[in-house]
Amino acid sequence: MSTPRKIIIDTDPGQDDAVAILLALGSPKELDVLGVTAVAGNVPLALTQKNARIVCELAGRPDMKVFAGCGAPMGRKLVTAEHVHGKTGLDGPVMPDPTMPLQDMHAVEFIIETLRAEPAGTVTLCVLGPLTNIGTAFERAPDIIDRVQEIVLMGGAYFQVGNITPAAEFNIYVDPDAAKIIFGAGVDIVVMPLDVTHKALTTRPRVEAFRALGNEAGRMVAEWTDFFERFDKDKYGSKGAPLHDPCVIAYLLKPELFSGRHVNVEIEVTSDLTLGMTVADWWGVTHRPANALFMGDLNAEGFFELLNERIARL
Ligand code: BDR
Ligand code: CA
Predict the structure, then answer these.
(1) Is the pTM higher than 0.90?
(2) Does residue 14 line the site of ligand 1, with CB under 6 A?
(3) Mutate to test the pocket of ligand 1, among 127, 132, 171, 278 (most ligand atoms within 8 A of CB)
């Protein structure tokens, strides 16, 4: 059997981030989570680092190393999303405060040190929030860029255009400067844009299936979903809410659930109107070289089967 793939989860939990972390921690045969690095995004850093620890404890992994990273984007003011995720970022069920410690080291230092210490090409960065921690690490330690195996990130959109503004998806919008660094770095990048994550949609039967798993993790996933679905139902008139961030982890476990194209993706960083837009050359109308595998479709049934199977193990 092959050894599990080494990953760092960079995240701003967030209910959907939380489900992604559970999916990873429920898959120890395939994934070796070296650490969880928190970033400011859905809510400020003080809450995202705390939420990351709450989720690790829920998964029965109080031994997991959780690091706090950047509290604000590389060159702009923080924009948060309490209107989606609630005041705590993990609104829904009442959850106990974590007792596991936060690591002393800054998340950016951890990312740099880990990439330098592990053999080149063996660590994958799974990015579920604004790209600030990774952009800062690349800027501070350019020698690590070539050592990254792959970056798999949730962010951007093409056909769905935007969710936080008419033109931009939240994770890219919050720190477009960091995103520009990442997309220009020459690293292998896999992108889960809104075009895909809006297909990872909860429905009543899917939520009830989580609840019926009979464990605490399944119950929490159902209760988080009960809370944050209201936003997308109201906005899009959809049956449920998109589980954006678990798409990143699901890709590592079952890439065959996804299909996409290798295209050029550029990030808008100057226009007020379209700040944070991911300009993806889906139709190949420029000669700009491809820099990302931009996903376009998802097998939703297979995705929810995988989630149920792995969350049941926690
Ligand atoms: C992304 O923004 C956050 O609200 C979610 O956690 C996800 O990472 C979706 O646009
Ligand atoms: Ca997120």
Answers:
(1) yes
(2) yes
(3) 171
For 50-105, the pLDDT digits (tens) are: 999 999 999 999 999 999 999 999 999 999 999 999 999 999 999 999 999 999 99
The rounded Å distance from CA 129 to ligand 1 centre is 6
244 flagged as catalytic: yes
Of residues 238 and 280, more confidently modeled: 280
Complete domains list, the chain, with CATH: 5-311 (3.90.245.10)
Beta-carbon-side half-sphere exposure of residue 157 (alpha carbons within 13 Å): 24
Structure token digits, residue 214: 């009979």
Cα(120) to ligand 2 centroid in Å equals: 27
Q: Which ligand is nearest to the CA of 154?
A: 1
